[in-house]
Design a protein that fits this description.
heterodimer; A: mainly beta; six-stranded mixed sheet; three-stranded antiparallel sheet; globular; B: mainly beta; seven-stranded mixed sheet; four-stranded antiparallel sheet; 11 strands
Chain lengths: 110, 120
C-alpha cells in the first residue's frame, strides 16, 4: 500500500481560502467514508481537524471543512489566519484494519 | 483532560531493541483502541500498529510486522511498543494516539512523541 498523495505545499494570504487535496485509490479514499485530516505544528502533538470526511470535532473552527469526490478528498481552510500555518496530513482507512497517511502538505500563510 | 505521554525513546544500534511506553490519563483507557504512529525525519506520518480495547485484535503495518509487538496494560492505563531487530529506517518520532470511530479510523488524541534513533 502506497501513501496517499498530497501536494507538498500550499499557501494563501490572511483571509483567503486554500484547499489541500489528498488522492488515493478505490481501496482506500474512494472505498470508505473514513478520511481524516490532522494539523501538525512541528514539535507538538498532531491535532484532529476533520474526521469521517467532513465531520468537525468539538473546538475546531468552522473555517475548516472537508469533502470527498471519488478517490480524492479535500480539506478547505477559509478565512486563513496566521495560526493555521502548519503541516496538514490526510489519512484514510484502507481495509483489513490498516490506515494510510498522506505525505503531508506544508501550509504557509503569506 | 486527555493526556498521552510517550517515553522510552533513545539511541540504539541496528539490530537492537527498544521498548516504548505511553501513559494515558483523563479518559477511560480500556474503552478505546490505541495506536502507534511514527514520523521519520523529513517524512510524513506512518501508521505502525493498533490494539483493540480488550487486546483481542492487534494489527501491524507490513513494514514492522514480525519485528514490533504492541501491547497494553489496562490496569496501568499504559500502551507499549516492543521494537526488535531495529533498522536505520525505523528512525522516527513515535506517537501514541487514541483511536475512535468505526475500525478506529481516526485518532482524536495524540501524544507529543518520543524520538527513536537507530544508528551505529
Amino acid at each position: 500500500q502506497s501513501a496517499l498523495t498530497q501536494p507538498p505545499s500550499a499557501s494563501g494570504s490572511p483571509g483567503q481560502s486554500v484547499t489541500i487535496s489528498c488522492t488515493g485509490t478505490s481501496s482506500d479514499v474512494g472505498g470508505y467514508n473514513y478520511v481524516s485530516w490532522y494539523q501538525h505544528h512541528p514539535g507538538k502533538a498532531p491535532k484532529l481537524m476533520i474526521y469521517e470526511v467532513s465531520k468537525r470535532p468539538s473546538g475546531v473552527p468552522d473555517r475548516f471543512s472537508g469533502s470527498k469526490s471519488g478517490n480524492t478528498a479535500s480539506l478547505t481552510v477559509s478565512g486563513l489566519q496566521a495560526e493555521d500555518e502548519a503541516d496538514y496530513y490526510c489519512s484514510s482507512y484502507a481495509g483489513s484494519n490498516t490506515l494510510l497517511f498522506g505525505g503531508g502538505t506544508k501550509l504557509t500563510v503569506l | 483532560e486527555v493526556q498521552l505521554v510517550e517515553s522510552g525513546g533513545g539511541l540504539v544500534k541496528p539490530g537492537g531493541s527498544l521498548r516504548l511506553s505511553c501513559a494515558a490519563s483523563g479518559f477511560t483507557f480500556d474503552f478505546y483502541s490505541m495506536n502507534w504512529v511514527r514520523q521519520a525525519p523529513g517524512k510524513g506520518l506512518e501508521w505502525v500498529s493498533s490494539i483493540s480495547s480488550s487486546t483481542a485484535y492487534i494489527y501491524y503495518a507490513d513494514s514492522v510486522k514480525g519485528r514490533f509487538t504492541i501491547s497494553r496494560d489496562n490496569a496501568k492505563n499504559s500502551l507499549y511498543l516492543q521494537m526488535n531487530s531495529l533498522r536505520a529506517d525505523d528512525t522516527a518520532v513515535y506517537y501514541c494516539a487514541r483511536g475512535s470511530g468505526s475500525y478506529a479510523n481516526y485518532f482524536d488524541y495524540w501524544g507529543q512523541g518520543t524520538l527513536v534513533t537507530v544508528s551505529s
